Amino acid sequence: MSNSIKISPSILSADFSKLGEEVISLDKAGADYIHVDVMDGHFVPNITIGPEVIKNLRPLTKKTFDVHLMISQVDRHIEGFANAGADIITFHPEATDDVKKTINLIKKNRKKVGISLKPKSSISLVKDYLEEIDLVLIMSVEPGFGGQKFMPEVIEKLKEIKKIVTEKNLNIDLEIDGGINFSNCKSVKEAGANVLVSGSAIFNENNGDLKKNINLLREAS
Ligand code: DX5
Ligand code: ZN
Question: What pTM did the predictor assign?
Answer without folding.
Answer: 0.98
